[in-house]
Amino acid sequence: MTSPATDAPPLLRMRGIDKTYPGVRALRGVDLDLRAGEVLALIGENGAGKSTLIKILGGAIAADGGRIDVDGRPVQLRGPTAAQRAGVSIIYQEFNLVPALTARENIFLGQEPRRLSWLPVAREHRRSQELFARIGVAIDPETPCRNLTVAQQQVVEIAKALSRQARVVVMDEPSAALSPRETAHLFAVIRELQSQGIGLIYISHRLSEIFEIADRVMVLRDGAHVATRPIGELTRERIIEMMVGRTLDTEFPKQRVAVGPPRLVVRDLRRGRAVRGVSFEVRRGEVLALTGLVGAGRTETARLIFAADRAESGEVSLDGRTLRLRSPRDAIAAGICLLTEDRKSQGLVLGRSVQENFGLPNMNRFAPRGFLHLRREAAALDGYIEQMQIKLAGRGQTAGTLSGGNQQKVVLAKWLERNAEVVIFDEPTRGIDVGAKYEIYVLMNRLAAQGKAVLMISSELPEVLGMSDRILVMHEGRITGEINDVARATQEQIMELAVQ
Q1: Which domains does the chain have, with CATH numbers?
Q2: CB–CB of 205/43 below 8 Å?
Q3: For residue 473, what are the β-bridge partners?
Q4: How far apart are CA 47 and CA 63, in angstroms?
C-alpha cells in the first residue's frame, strides 16, 4: 500500500461542519483531513452522519456552518458541478449512470462542447481508453452500460471522476454488490489511484476491508467526530467500540437452542439454470445458512419458496403440509415471510410512512372488516420501535429517509407482527453497521428460540460461521455441500464448496 506523507498539508480539510434537519442535528462541528495518496476509511453506525457529510462535500446539500479547503484554498460547494470543479467526485452506492448510453457517453456526459458542433466522438473514445488504461482495466468504450457487470460499471464511474480531474474521490459502499474476486480487483484500482496522488474516502461496513485498504480510520457517532487513527493502532474490537459507544461482548451473539423436527421442507425446486433441483429442510429452532458466490442461485431459491417467481417444478411443505403457492400473498398466508436482499425496491414503499409500511402485510389484523384501526396499528408499531430501538422522528416519517439499518428493522418489524413460522433473511445485514447487525442477530436468536424456522442467505462468511446451526453451499443453481459441524468449519472449507 502506498503510504502518504504524514507531514504534508491535507489535500482536503473540512472544519466545523454543522447540519441540522427538523428535529435532528445530523452533524455537530465535524472535522476531516485527507492527504494526497491516502485512503481514509469513514465509518460509523447508520445515522451517524456519514452520508450527510459526504453529500455536503459533493455539493448535494449545503452545510449550516463550517469551512472546506481543497489544496489549501477555501471552496464554496454550491452544487455538484461546483464540487467537480473543485476536484471532488462522489461515487455513490447507486451508480449515476445512464444504462442505455455507452461507457464513453457516460464518462463525458455533461462535458459536451458548449458551442453547437459535432461531438468529438473519436477524441472521447481515445480518451476513454486512456482513462481505463490509467486505472488498469480493459473495457470497450462503446459498450452500453446496461451490458456491463457491476464491477465494470464501477470502473466507468471512476473513469468519469478522473475525466473531471478529480483529486478527491469518495467511494460509498463500493464492494456491496461485488464478488470477492471483483473486490480484490477494486482494491488494485484503488492502490493505482493512490500512487497517482489521489486522496480517497472509503465508506464501508465491512471491517475486514478497512484493515486491508485503509491508511487511517475516521469514526463518526451521532453526528460527532469520535476519533481519527492510523489503521495500525486499531483492532476490530476497538473500532466497534468507538462506533457503538460501548463494548460488545461478541460480534456474533449466537445462542444455541434445541433443534426440533423439520418445519420447512423443499424438494427438487427448479427454475431454468438458476435453480436446478434444490432440496433441503429447515428444522424447528434452527438457523440454516445458505451461502455461495454471487449468482449461485441463493436469492432465486428464496424467491421460489416465497412464490415471488413461479417454479417449473418442485414442492414446498410446511409442518408436513404441502403448500400450493401461486403468489407472495399465498406464502404470507401460509406463514412464510421474506426479508428481501434489496430492501429499498422490494421490502419497502419508500415514499410512504413507516406506519403504512408496517401495516401493509398486516391488514387482516388492523383492518379486519375493511376499516383501518389506526390506534391499534400505531400501538403495535410503537412496541417494535421501543423493542428494536428503531431511530426515527415519528411513525409518520417517510421510510426512504431512514438509515439502512433502521429501514431493515422496519421490514423485520412488519414480519414479526405477522408472526410468520418461516423467516427467510436474504443478506440481512448488507449495508448496515455493526451495532444494527448485533441487534438483528439477537432477533434471529429470539425467532429460533420461539421454534421458528430461520433461513439466512448471506455472502458474509464470518456471519455464516458465527450465526448458523448448519450451512448449505450453492454453486451454479445446485447445493454442492452441507456443513453440520459449524464450530469446526472454516471460510476456506466453504469457499472450496462454493467454487466446485
Answers
A1: 12-244 (3.40.50.300), 262-498 (3.40.50.300)
A2: yes
A3: 291, 481
A4: 17
What pLDDT digit, counting tens, does each position of 122-181 carry?
999 999 999 999 888 889 999 999 998 888 898 899 999 999 889 999 998 888 777 777
* φ, ψ at 485 (rounded to 5°): -95, 80
Within 10 angstroms of residue 141's Cβ, the number of other Cβ atoms is: 22
User: Residue 102 has what DSSP assignment?
Assistant: B
Count Cα atoms within 13 angstroms, Cβ side, for 90: 23
Q: What share of the chain is helix, strand, coil (3-state, %, to 5)?
A: 35, 25, 40
Nearest by Cα to 122 from 141, 148, 144, 135: 141
Task: Write the DSSP symbol of residue 164.
Answer: T
Residue with cell string 455513490:
92
Type of residue found at 110: G
The number of residues making up the chain comes to 500
H/E segment holding residue 305 = helix 298-305
**Rounded to an integer, what distance in angstroms lies between the CA atom of residue 414 and that of residue 359?**
7
- Grid coordinates representing 273 are 439454470
> Residue 359 is inside which H or E element, if any?
helix 354-359
Contacts of 106 (CB under 8 A, 6+ apart): 97, 98, 145, 156, 160
Q: Are 178 and 151 in contact (CB under 8 A)?
A: yes
- Residue 252, CA distances (Å) to 367, 440, 462, 468 in order: 38, 10, 9, 10
pTM of the model: 0.67
Distance in angstroms (rounded) separating the CA atoms of residues 236 and 219: 13
User: HSE (CB half, 13 Å, CA atoms) of 128?
Assistant: 23
Q: At what angle do helices 404-418 and 434-449 cross, to 10 degrees?
A: 10
Contact 201, 40 (CB under 8 A): yes
Task: Read off the DSSP letter of residue 5.
Answer: P
pLDDT digits (tens, 9 = 90+) for 124-135: 999 999 999 988
Handedness of CA 308, 311, 317, 321 (dihedral sign): positive
